[in-house]
Amino acid sequence: MKLTLGFSPCPNDTFIFDALIHHKIDTEGLEFEVSYDDVETLNQKALRGELDITKLSFHAFAYVANQYALLDAGSALGFGVGPLLISKKHFNGENDAELQTPDSKLRVGIPGKYTTANFLLGIAYPHLQNKQELVFSEIESALLNGQIDLGLIIHENRFTYQDKGLNKIVDLGDYWEKLTGCAIPLGGIVINRNLNHDLQLKVNRLVRQSVEFAFAHPQSGIDFIRQHAQAMEESVMYKHIELYVNKYSINLGEEGRKAVDTLFKLAQERGIIPAIQENLYI
């Protein structure tokens, strides 16, 4: 049986899925037709219901929870992993009045409307509404050439912005942790609810085994990871993996589910996402 599967070319996702799609584990008769896309493209595909299984941001999940259920394996949650708000010019820290003014005209580059990064930006800085959607890897360049005033960066750009002379204003992951005490939920793996429940459980089991294989054999997928890592230095690749792949990627557990539930509760209370009736999990 063949299932469609979407995930990003970022090292954390290729690290997680290498063993699954290359049959380094027993896939129990399942084959996977893979799409490699940036997170916002994956979000849009989920909104259109195009894939059987897909990575997506937790913000986007709120809009497709009636169609997809969250696996316990494969998610990206953690402490110290949040998006960063950065700039070319110097601001006076996260409480700079220019960031908090109700009629702010500051132009903000975001990696997508439905990203969890944009959700956190809305919580922390509700007045920053002049947003431009950009591919995440283009945000640093847009700051440097003056196209935008602020940039919301994710993924490996956390490790490269300083080398380009850009400045951190605030770590929105740190903001979230102080607000809730929870790990920050960034992205999850969801599966179409129309698929047989036993099949959903099988996929969850296989994704977990794929993560466990990757942890047990960290060099096994290096060529595959490098192939999709956009000429990233190997040291940056492994920093990226260490930051986003952890115990929550093996199994959300009670802590991980609490973090996801807290995110959705806060977002619904603030009117950022619609009310959700379905159980989020498989």
UniProtKB/TrEMBL annotation:
Its EC number is 4.1.99.29. It catalyses: cyclic dehypoxanthinylfutalosinate = 1,4-dihydroxy-6-naphthoate + dihydroxyacetone. Belongs to the MqnA/MqnD family. MqnD subfamily. The active site is at H155. GO terms for biological process: menaquinone biosynthetic process. SUPFAM superfamilies: Periplasmic binding protein-like II. This is 1,4-dihydroxy-6-naphtoate synthase. It comes from the Bacteria. One of its GO terms (molecular function) is carbon-carbon lyase activity. Pfam families: VitK2_biosynth. Pathway: Quinol/quinone metabolism; menaquinone biosynthesis. The keyword Transport does not apply. Substrate binds at K55, L56, S57, T116, A117. The keyword ATP-binding does not apply. PANTHER family: 1,4-DIHYDROXY-6-NAPHTOATE SYNTHASE. InterPro entries: Menaquinone_biosynth (IPR003773), MqnD (IPR030869). Catalyzes the conversion of cyclic dehypoxanthine futalosine (cyclic DHFL) into 1,4-dihydroxy-6-naphthoate, a step in the biosynthesis of menaquinone (MK, vitamin K2). HAMAP family: MqnD (MF_00996). Keywords: Lyase, Menaquinone biosynthesis. It is an enzyme of class 4 (lyase). Coiled coil: none annotated.
